[in-house]
Amino acid sequence: MIETATLITLCMLYLIFFRPGKTPPLQNPLVIERPGQYHLTLAAKLNLAQPFIEAVANQIGTSGEAGQSSATQFFEVHDNQVAAHGYDLYLLAITRRNGILLIQAARPVSKDPNAYLDTIREFARAVLARFPNDEEPASGDKIVAAVLHEAGLRGIKIETL
């Protein structure tokens, strides 16, 4: 009897302390905010893009232009990890406003490559409306360089829109 109670107690303690983390539902947008660093908004079913995007955010964060604002940069991303869920590509918008890196990722609405830029601009505009820009934006060359660098390390194909 005591062995059974001990075994049940140990199993409960294991489940309480060592259970794996919960994965966010794929149907909901994912918003991650690291105060003072970045604000990330991923459209539904793009949570698998998070490791790449956070690596880009960390790379940009170490580039030395933390206080500047930048022009928004738009990308078409072909990531094999996201493709495992049936999406060949996703669209990415990255900008820095008042020292905070703002990142948005969305799926294309249509299969027409000519509509990709409009799709990500509209998605980014809706998110960025909450973050007014007080400064004149500088070029986004450091953002582009960081995205291309991280994509090269991970074997991800990137096209600038």
Q: Please, what is the average pLDDT?
A: 77
Name the beta content range.
Answer: 15-25%
* Estimated helix fraction: 25-40%
Q: Could you state the order of secondary-structure elements as H and E?
A: HEEHEHEEHHE
Cα-based radius of gyration, to the nearest Å: 20 Å
Work out the count of structural domains.
1
3D shape:
elongated
Query: Major sheet: order of its strands?
Result: 1-2-5-4-3-6
Give the beta-strand count: 6
Distance between the termini: 68 Å
Quick structural gist:
This protein has five helices and six strands; from the N terminus they run H-E-E-H-E-H-E-E-H-H-E. With 161 residues, it is an alpha+beta fold. The chain has one domain.
Structure report:
This protein has 161 residues and is an alpha+beta fold. It is built from five helices and six strands; from the N terminus they run H-E-E-H-E-H-E-E-H-H-E. It has one domain (26-160). Helix 2 packs across helix 5 (141-154). It is elongated, with a radius of gyration of 20 Å. Helix content is 37%, strand content 22%. A six-stranded mixed beta sheet has the order 1-2-5-4-3-6, with helices on both faces.
